[in-house]
Structures are given as structure tokens and as C-alpha cells.
Amino acid sequence: MPRLFVVRHGETEWSQNGQTGRTDIPLTDKGVAQIKRMAPLYVGDGLLVDPINICTVLVSPRQRSHRTFHLLFEHTGKVPSHILTEQVREWDYGQYEGLKSAEIAKLNPSWKIWDDGCPGGESVEDMTNRVDGVINMVREYHKQYIEGVRQDRDVVIVAHGHFNRVLISRWIRFSLCLGTHFNVEPASVAVLGYNHNSLDEPALNGLNLATVIH
């Protein structure tokens, strides 16, 4: 059965400090090292993420994700077809862009992104609709494989912590707020697939692969 591999970019200063948003910040040296250690173990011929099976990669345009993508496949010499798309960018924090949780709590003590969304940014409904659009795109690729239209089956998304948590929640057809219960570490891989060989039974197959080597 086809799969969706969801990769979070490597460490940044913001992921260290608990800041979130759309600002274009680079990987730290540690973030680069994380991806370089992980990639040869999980990406390559005969490995979990095998370039021969990949039909496309959706990559957030932010440099932390774009660089992570290239580092993932650098050692293989086989950079797969990829699409830079704002559809997989991080949650737009609006007025809370770049603020730490403690700083937001001073402004709005009862605020929870999973219930309230972001003032001046994306609401819960906005984020749900954006992620659902990405899932529909992925499932169309998977459907084409099942129907024999294409021979390559897997999709990879290289994106961000909150985006990935929302994606996992929506993939298994729960509300977005389930994402608060998922821990998605920097430079980790999640595997989404299907139960009983059925596209009607989406499933979470693996979470936080690769974190044990960090």
C-alpha cells in the first residue's frame, strides 16, 4: 500500500526556544547534523524512504524545510521531484508570530491554538481546510497507484511541527485539536498509511522515527 512520510525539519533556534510561526529562519548546526545522521538510516535504496517509490515531495518554502529536504536525499544522488508549496507551511500565528508560550499567556491567559486559532493569522477552520486540501492531494496520488495509473506510490512532506501534528490528526479523520497529544520532534519521520489495504481506512503507522539517534 502507498504511504505518506511526514518529516519535520531539523532543529532551529525557534524550536529550541518554543517559538513558532512563518518567519524564515535557518537550521542550527545541530539541526543540519540531525538530518545528516538520520538520512542514511532511513532514506535510500531499499530503506524506508526509497527514492524509487516516491512520486512527489511537498516541501514548505521556508529555508529550514527546504534545506532539510535536500539534506535528506543528498547522499543518494537521487533528488526526487518536489514541489515548493505554501500549502505545507507552518501555522500562521498572526499577532502571536515568534512569541513564546509564556509571552502569549501574558496577553491571553486562556488561549489555546488548538481551540482558538491565531488572531490576525489562521483560524482552526483555516488550518483544517488547508491541511484537508493537502490530504486530498496525497490521496489522489495514492488512488492513482492503486488503480495502476502510476508505478510510484509514496509521497513525502517536509514541513513543520504544528503543521505535521494537524496533518496527522486530520489524516486519521479526527478534529485538528487531537494534534495537541502528538509530539513531533525536529528531524523526525512519521509514517501514515492505511489499514486492511483500504484507502477508506487511513492509519498512523509510525511516529517520531529517527529521534532515538539524536
Automatic annotation (TrEMBL):
InterPro entries: His_Pase_superF_clade-1 (IPR013078), His_PPase_superfam (IPR029033), PGM_Phosphatase (IPR050275). GO terms for molecular function: sedoheptulose-bisphosphatase activity. One of its GO terms (biological process) is ribose phosphate biosynthetic process. SMART domains: PGAM (SM00855). SUPFAM superfamilies: Phosphoglycerate mutase-like (SSF53254). Pfam families: His_Phos_1 (PF00300). Substrate binds at residues 20-21, 64, 90-93. It comes from the Eukaryota. The active site is at residues 9, 90. This is Phosphoglycerate mutase-like protein.
